[in-house]
Predict the structure.
Amino acid sequence: MKHYIYALVDPTSGEVRYVGQCLNTKKRLQMHTSPSALTRTSPLAAWLRGLPAKPWMVILETVECTSSRHDSNCAGTVR
């Protein structure tokens, strides 16, 4: 199973503001920018609310994984 390590990039400055992992990049970007996600009080949600457009999602790495995402042999931790 492929895991994607991705960055959310500010579309105005080109600055990387968030790094995460997911299985489905399209769905994950939709989840980050959904109305319910934007009502949260996290720094990420505050940053996303302030953007004039959706952030860019850049794939940093693709990891092939044969076990659960919490396994230490998989993409469990991004540093």
Notes: Residues 75-79 have pLDDT under 50 and may be disordered. The CA atoms of residues 26 and 57 lie 9 Å apart. The chain is about 25% helix and 30% strand.
